[in-house]
Amino acid sequence: MYYSEVDCSNDLDGTNAYDDIAKFDLAEWRAYYPGEDLDDLDILDIGFWTVAGDYIAPEPDWRAELRDAHAS
Predict the structure, then answer these.
(1) Which residue has the higher pLDDT, 67 or 4?
(2) Separation of alpha carbons 58 and 33, rounded Å
(3) pTM, entire model
(4) What gap in Å lies between CA 11 and CA 52, rounded to an integer?
(5) Could you tell me the residue ranges of all domains in the chain?
(6) Mind giving me the DSSP string for 22-68?
(7) How far apart are CA 11 and CA 15, in angstroms?
(8) Does residue 27 register a pLDDT over 70?
(9) More confidently predicted of 44 and 8
């Protein structure tokens, strides 16, 4: 499955906070979660590149919370 859009309809100030995202790091996400589907994904759980070329890594604390939640 391929996603090319981000739903920002719930941004509180009415702006699109994700306008700066050029592409998502699906290869890293798939390597971290082998065999999982991209059905429900949080922006904190996936790395991305900005239009300026900067890489923003997935948030490790968020991933730890998810791991702990799934373990219990």
Answers:
(1) 67
(2) 13
(3) 0.72
(4) 22
(5) 21-71
(6) EEE-HHHHHHHSTT--SSS--GGGS-EEETTS-EE---HHHHHHHHH
(7) 6
(8) yes
(9) 44
